[in-house]
Amino acid sequence: MEYFAPKSRCNLCNKEYTQRGLTKHIKSCINKKLHDTKGDKYLYIVVQSSFNHDYFFHLLLSPTTTLRDLDAFLRKHWLECCGHLSAFTFDRWGEEIPMSRKVNTALVPGKMIDYQYDFGSTTELEIKCITEVTVNTRDRKKIMILSRNEQPVFPCDECGKHVATRICTACQWEGEGWLCEKCASGHDCGEDMYFLPVVNSPRTGVCAYDGE
Ligand SMILES: [Zn+2]
Ligand SMILES: [Zn+2]
Ligand SMILES: [Zn+2]
Ligand SMILES: [Zn+2]
Hints:
- The chain is an alpha+beta fold.
- It folds into two domains: 8-148, MM3350-like (Structural Genomics Hypothetical 15.5 Kd Protein In mrcA-pckA Intergenic Region, Chain A, Roll); 154-212, no CATH class.
- The chain has helices spanning 19-33, 67-79, 103-106, 181-185; strands at 8-9, 16-17, 35-49, 56-61, 86-89, 96-97, 112-117, 123-135, 143-148, 166-168, 178-179, 195-197.
- Strand 7 and strand 8 (123-135) form a beta hairpin.
- One zinc ion binds next to loops.
């Protein structure tokens, strides 16, 4: 088998799209379903792993949302393992943007900022601001999930035949160690070895991350 990323769902209409078609679709779906000239100005953004764009969130952010709110959201769904530091920055590791900033003062449609969680084993994310939209949403949450990627499927590094479900933390850095249940049961890397589950997050297999 080979690696593949399944289609993902637009939460506004429940239809499935590939990662490539999703942004264009969601833009028009927002216009159809939520647009209201008397509404508030929200931001439509895409957060994705810097190194694998198959991990993503499409989000609608209310005008009161701060970067700290977005940080908390990302930690909850994707990142939190042991309370590491994090930062929003311009130009990858450039100038840091204060967490107290409202998203609509930090994000500009068509532009991108970056985010890092954990300055040791860093998980890097890109945050693309797609557009500002005037909408009326019954969802009163600051952050509304428009779409989240379906979990990508990785083949087992050892047999190549089955889906990898566990990661050996000792040998994954050599491009091995993503294992199916069968190969994991016979795997022995010495006493420092432990397994982490394969989960739907760009932090899967990193530090002690074991899921939401
Ligand atoms: Zn839709
Ligand atoms: Zn950690
Ligand atoms: Zn296997
Ligand atoms: Zn191993």
